[in-house]
Amino acid sequence: MKRIILGVFAISLALALAVGATVSQFEDTETSTGNTFTAGSLDLTVGGQDGPFSNYFTATNMAPGHSYIGGCYDVRNAGSLPGALTLKVNNVVSNENGEIEPELSDGDVAATEIDPSGYDANTGNGELWDQLDVKFFIDDGAGSHAGNGVWDWDDHAIFSNFGTPSSDYSGYYSLPLNTDLVGGTMTLTAGQTRRFCTEVYFVDDDTNWWWGGQAGLTNNMAMTDDVTFDMILGLVQIP
């Protein structure tokens, strides 16, 4: 009996020592307050402004065989993160604007788009879209080519179908609609600015070299016609 009591006493003493050892450790704590996590930003401006914009890029009184710069504007990443520039074209409308005698004499038909290939990526009844080549580029060539407002060989071409008339002539040679034409080839770092330009070429049906010509579609059919389309510029986060 005495041994049992001594054993219980020894266990109790061991527990007491263990508890005493736990509460007697050194301890120190520090507190960090006001921890903040802030999202960065992507903010594309065009010509120093946020959109939407109307009639920024235009060309008037166009004649076959000539190229026209539709406009050049600074695109800037006003945000704090780098972003990939994107460009999409959509909502193409080729307006007839009535038919004058030269159009009708060459076979134009009222309220009808004369489409030699049967491919039709635009709305409206005009023929001008089928006779335009389109180019989008960054005006960043070297030396005197930088920012001069015209296409130079060392500028950065975003998209061009020059030499393959025309934008709506066939499914193969057309300007892809609602598709990013930049394809990740142009990055704007935070605060960076690039000069973005558009150019159009009115294909001359007498001299264009492409096989098949314009299959009977004449420049006269496009007299007084106009084309409108939307350009959607954007920035996408770089993974």
How would the blueprint of this fold be written?
Elements: H1 2-23, E1 44-46, E2 67-77, E3 83-95, H2 101-105, E4 132-138, E5 156-160, E6 187-188, E7 193-202, E8 226-237
Antiparallel strand pairs: 1-2, 2-7, 3-6, 3-8, 4-5, 4-7
What does this structure look like?
This protein is of the alpha+beta class and 239 residues long. It has one domain (65-237). Helix content is 11%, strand content 26%. It is built from 2 helices and 8 strands. It has helices at residues 2-23, 101-105, and strands at 44-46, 67-77, 83-95, 132-138, 156-160, 187-188, 193-202, 226-237. A 5-stranded antiparallel β-sheet has the order 1-2-7-4-5, with no helix packed on it. The protein has a 3-stranded antiparallel β-sheet with strand order 6-3-8, with no helix packed on it. The chain is elongated, with a radius of gyration of 34 Å. It starts with a helix and ends with a strand.
Query: Which stretches are poorly predicted, pLDDT < 50 over at least 5 residues?
Result: 4-9
Q: Using the CA coordinates, give the radius of gyration.
A: 34 Å
The chain-level mean pLDDT equals 86
| Tally of individual domains | 1
Summarize the structure.
This protein is of the alpha+beta class and 239 residues long. It has 2 helices and 8 strands.
List keywords for this structure.
239 residues; alpha+beta; five-stranded antiparallel sheet; three-stranded antiparallel sheet; 2 helices; 11% helix; 26% strand; elongated
